[in-house]
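User: Run a structure prediction on this.
Assistant: Running it now.
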Amino acid sequence: MASSWRRTLGNVRSFVSNSMGGLKGGSNLASWVVAGTLAYYLWIKPSQDLKRQQQEKAALAASEADPYRYVETRKPIPDPQVTGLRYGKRNEDRESKSED
């Protein structure tokens, strides 16, 4: 009885080993790394890129179809302290002194 499960386990191990091309050790690992890398760049990445492009197109079409969407029509008002319209120490001066 004990030898039958050992034989079965041995058969499974040899089947797996043979299905991987009979490579053992480092060459086996290297071949799996190469195969995985090729699979990623040939199948997975293009599929993900295509999905991303389709989502971007759908989002753009949805935003263009909405007549009530918010559109910024005015430029933001710059900070008068930073532009020099108000006198005093600018943010840059305070930051450089705090670093020293």
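The CA atoms of residues 37 and 43 lie 10 Å apart.
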